[in-house]
Write a structure and sequence with these properties.
Its cofactor is Zn(2+). With 431 residues, this protein is an alpha/beta fold. It contains 14 helices and 22 strands. The strands form five sheets. Strands 1, 2, 3, 4, 5, 6, 7, 18, 21 and 22 form a ten-stranded mixed beta sheet that branches. It is globular, with a radius of gyration of 21 Å.
């Protein structure tokens, strides 16, 4: 990591706005601002030059659903290590969930997080709690947290289970023009599930969580959003019927958006049997069926699913190295999200490059009411340099997260983020 406020990026192919990735240009950055876009630009005395050799350049990517664990669980991840993982994955901005200790349920915790991240090349946007201490009993100080820098509200890790509390939260969200992000789970239907309930769980003899546990809560929240006019954002959607519920709600003009994780449009519950109960394929929502995976891909293709997120959830090695049913849910995902998306969405032609980038750049920020970075003269330089064809291995030696609980560890990947530029810092990734 280094500060390079004056930088000449040579031979980049911008994608976005007036650029479609076909034209190769040079971009001059001075004091963190794009000052010139042209061809055959020459570096000045105070400038460093980086030859991108034809790599693509887009606005910086954003992950709107990560767990940075700080404060309280620094043995899993810290804001600094989580942002290092984000930078390696091509993300210049992340929004962090509030299931910390203390929870992000007050302005002082919001400001603590933004203060800890202010010198980093990755912007961190805290998501405040819906309820105090995430206990589901009383509304948190939402307006005060917004003033402190919160960009949304969620009790993620747990659903907002009380319908009246969710109604009030959505009414506040309407007034504050901020989304409520709900972990959609009917606890009476889901517990004590450790994987998707279906043919594989029956064969393995493991208690499962049925898809309807997610779907009934989504249906409730859609109706409450329609009733209140608030904005409900469905976190980490995972079932085919859930996608159809969101599709119908959008058609009806209800203010609902959603996101999906790469593992949910890539892996199925068959992985648990194939990998002999590897706890790195245990997450929540659980891996579902191939039908559900196909529905995620279809939802991304037709625009029902707005954004791609990772639900980056680090766990210490001793927490995951236990029997499957005792392991915590969650995997890290920041460093592999682009490669999985290339393989599953770009290479098969499900999405064109510009449409895939919208899921990483445009829509997460629009949902959170944040400025979308632009590639134009006079704009703040918030950029991701990437390719779509480089072969590389996701080895332990390249993991930047403090944890390595990933089902993709050791896999050959295709496409990666080569560098990011943000906050006057240029971070070049090595593999």
């Amino acid at each position: 990591m280094s500060y390079r406020p004056n930088l000449l990026l040579k031979n980049v192919k911008p994608v976005g706005a007036d650029f479609d990735g076909s034209k190769q240009v040079d971009i001059r950055i001075a004091d963190g601002t794009i000052v010139e876009i042209g061809t055959e630009l020459e570096a000045g005395d105070s400038e460093e030059t980086f030859d991108a050799e034809g790599a693509y350049l887009s606005g910086g990517w954003m992950d709107m659903h990560v767990h940075l664990r700080e404060p309280g669980y620094e043995h899993k991840e810290t804001i600094k290590t989580g942002c290092a993982a984000a930078a390696f994955g091509g993300f210049t901005e992340v929004a962090c969930m509030p299931n910390t200790n203390p929870a992000i349920d007050s302005r002082d915790v919001v400001e603590f997080i933004t203060k800890r991240a202010e010198e980093l090349p990755v912007n961190v946007h805290p998501i405040g709690c819906v309820s105090k201490e995430r206990a589901g009993k009383a509304i948190a100080e939402m307006s005060d947290m917004k003033e402190g820098g919160a960009v949304a509200f969620s009790d993620d890790g747990d659903p907002v289970y009380n319908a009246q509390l969710m109604r009030v939260a959505l009414e506040y969200s309407s007034m504050l023009e901020m989304p409520i992000i709900n972990h959609e789970e009917d606890l009476k239907l889901s517990r004590p599930g450790h994987m998707h309930e279906g043919r594989v769980s029956a064969r393995l003899g493991i208690d499962g969580t049925p898809g309807i546990a997610e779907e009934t809560m989504i249906a409730r929240d859609i109706l409450l959003a329609e009733f209140t006019g608030g904005h409900i954002h469905v976190a980490h959607i995972s079932t085919a019927k859930a996608v159809e519920l969101v599709r119908r709600a959008k058609a009806d003009g209800i203010n609902v958006t959603t996101e999906v994780c790469p593992h949910h449009f890539d892996l199925t519950d068959e992985e648990i049997e194939r990998r002999d109960f590897d706890t790195n394929v245990k997450m929540h929502p659980p891996l579902r069926t191939q039908e559900d995976v196909d529905a995620m891909i279809e939802g991304l293709a037709d625009g029902t699913i707005d954004a791609i997120c990772t639900d980056h959830a680090p766990h210490a090695i001793e927490e995951k190295e236990v029997e499957f049913i005792y392991a915590p849910n969650g995997i890290i995902g920041l460093e592999t999200a682009w490669s999985v998306s290339v393989r599953q969405l770009l290479e098969p032609g499900v999405l064109e490059l510009t449409d895939l980038l919208d899921k990483f750049v445009k829509y997460p920020r629009e949902i959170l009411n944040l400025d979308v970075p632009q590639i134009k003269e006079g704009a703040e330089a918030n950029l991701t340099l990437f390719n779509t064809d480089e072969k590389w291995t996701f080895a332990e030696s390249v993991v930047k997260s403090k944890s390595n609980n990933s089902p993709y560890l050791g896999n050959e990947m295709t496409g990666r983020a080569e560098a990011i530029y943000n906050n006057g810092q240029f971070v070049v990734n090595e593999v």
